[in-house]
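Just scan my protein:

. . .
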Amino acid sequence: MLLVVSALLLGAPRATAALDEPGRLWLVAQRAFEDRLNGVARVSLERLVERYPQDGRYGDALLLLGKVRFAEGALEPALTAFRQARTITPPPGEPQEARFWEAETLFRLGRYDAARGAYEGVVAADAASKYAPDSLYGLAWSELELKHRDPAINAFRQLVSAFPDHATVPSATYYLARALVDAKRYDEAIGLLRGYPERYPKSKHIPEALYLQGYARITAGERNEGIADLRAFVAKYPQHDLANQARRTVVERLLKDGRKDELAEEYKLLMAQEPRTAESLYDAGFIATRLNRPKDSEAAWTALRKDFPDHPLAARASLDLAQAAFGRGSFKDAASLARVAAKSDDTGVRAQAQLLVGESELKQKRASPALQAFRAAAEASADDAAVRYRALAGAGLALEEQGKLSEAIRYYDQVAADCPDKELRAWARTRKTAVAAQLKPQPPPDKPAPKPRAVAPR
């Protein structure tokens, strides 16, 4: 195909003998777009629409030009092309095609309110359109982005009900269930999630759907069933991002129900498991912490670090051990263990570990390594405001220790202005005031401060 496009571009006699110039440009654009040669397609289409606005293919060329620009990420020019295409009578392409692509472009631009209106327009104009299912999906997501949960639920539900075989339905079903859980409509969510893996065996959301089903069941009062679901999820997807949360939810639920004997027995079973796994040792350590058995938790996590030093959970275990050491005042051990955890590939673990390094070093009056760690924690914690602002506050304290008061104030300013934690925000304001007072020039001790001059009234 590339040879054909090249021949057309060069104007080979055989390829172009029966084509006029607009026809040649259109054919080049079509074939280049099919071959994903977007640059070639765009140049041909821009020439066609600029030079031959009266050509019968003008509308189709505008629509295709919009798609090419969209594929290239040139969203504003794409939007212009789609809107121009919609002004042509009859509109080019299939029914509602230009309006659908306008909506997609608006969504990509982050103009969710306008995208919502365009998606609604597609569905309202032709509910049986080829683009209606994708428009309902886009409409639901626009509503979610606008924090309109109930309208999003309605759009997802309409899609699932009206187009049960559409490619977007597995994802729509999961996100509908998640929105229902957020709305505390647990029974409806559980009904959607039951049998999800069997109905949608190719869905990428199967793990998350299993987790959500367990969480919804526990919250709805189906505790045994929910615990069983979460345990099955952890067993099948032990390294999933939600696995750790699932483990903790199970343990907390058992503790809340007063089933400590069951947890103690589970600890024994996990520690005796052969062959041992990183997941079983980590779970054992976590259970022991919740049972207030620190020696047992340290035994489990130390075994994990020894037997599986390269496993992601080894870094998390190092962090947990570091926190335990910090809690009992062993700051040197805490710093050492936290530095091991800080090598984790998990940004969350890395940020928390660097924060703990900083706090441990500060307790030991080692301001320089503390400052370095706090800055690393702030940089790694872009998605965790709690860690980020604690790190910025810690950096301010470390700078105070070094006598760099102006720099300390800059850190306190950030915390005082933007921290979502009211208590930490108030602390930062107090600290800033105290440091600023130290920077004010004081009169020489051997000379009294000058008296203010009287000002005559006007």
